[in-house]
Specification:
single chain; flat; two-stranded antiparallel sheet; 25% helix; 287 residues; eight-stranded antiparallel sheet
Length: 287
């Protein structure tokens, strides 16, 4: 196991066509957007959910790659199982919480990567909190989005009492097209605390590139990762500010495109490599 020694900052570009990339339950599941600018938003929680699903699908129950936060998971059960580990029980009672936390980090990929709250109310079986080395921001669309709301019909009914009804109605939100940009950060200092190693990092990059390929649904339309730009610093503390690096990549609608962008090719991605400071290497990962 080789714990990462370098800081990383990354920029992710992904798009959606005829879908709802991240519905807002507070607004009838309409696509999330900035109320002032109408730029579309996709939460960090949404992206991490897709990464968790990708790891669970591709790694299965491989040791060290289980997922802690998943559908129908009982979190306290997993924390209690860590306290039943023989190595944990052999510890001084005052140190069992820390020992259980280490067991959970070794067992679950998402704890080791994103961190987790492991103090969920059971005083005797508490594992504290873990701050993960990988942090992801909200993603924001390059241009304001236009959301359409369609009425859909269903010819069948659910209950016998509705048998005489001709059809039932529903609603479906749709974004014709939008290109989103998100940012993320990988801290070697926090990786050292959780055991996040090079294998974990490689799986993160693969997941960011392929997560939408395994998350297809009619509601989300055609979603694809278009590009992943990774800035690798020579040092653990970093050799430049993240924002300075992100500013080296500019995304804008091509000047010859009239009207609203409706495909990725309507945008121009410029990478100003000459502006990247010394001590930082750009890794461009494209599908």
């Amino acid at each position: 196991m080789t714990i990462i020694q370098n800081r990383y900052d990354f920029l992710l570009l992904f798009d959606v066509q005829d879908g709802n990339p991240n519905g807002n339950p507070d607004a009838g599941n309409q696509p999330r957007f900035d109320a002032q600018t109408r730029n579309g938003l996709v939460t960090d929680v949404c992206i991490k959910r897709k990464l968790r699903n990708f790891v669970e699908l591709t790694m299965g129950q491989a040791p060290g790659f289980e997922i802690f936060v998943k559908e129908k998971a009982v979190l306290n059960r997993s924390i209690a199982e860590a306290h039943e580990d023989e190595g944990v029980k052999a510890k001084d009672p005052k140190k069992r919480s820390e020992a259980a936390r280490e067991v959970l980090c070794r067992r679950f990929y998402d704890i080791r990567t994103f961190g987790a709250v492991l103090s969920t109310g059971e005083k005797e079986k508490n594992a504290g909190q873990v701050r993960g080395p990988v942090q992801i921001t909200f993603s924001r669309s390059i241009d304001p989005i236009f959301s359409q709301d369609f009425t859909v019909t269903r010819m069948a009914v659910t209950n016998e009492k509705d048998e005489d009804k001709e059809r039932t109605m529903g609603r479906k939100a749709n974004v014709p097209y939008a290109l989103y940009k998100g940012h993320g950060f990988v801290s070697p200092a926090l990786a050292n605390q959780t055991g996040f190693d090079q294998t974990d990092l490689d799986l993160l990059w693969k997941g960011l590139l392929e997560m939408f390929e395994h998350d297809r649904s009619a509601a989300r339309g055609l979603m694809s990762t278009r590009a992943l730009f990774v800035f690798q610093h020579e040092s653990a503390l970093g050799n430049a500010r993240a924002q300075r690096l992100f500013d080296c990549i500019q995304v804008a609608k091509r000047p010859e495109v009239h009207g609203e962008p409706r495909r990725f090719e309507d945008y121009e991605v410029q990478v100003n490599e000459e502006q990247i400071p010394k001590g930082v290497k750009l890794l461009q990962l494209h599908i």
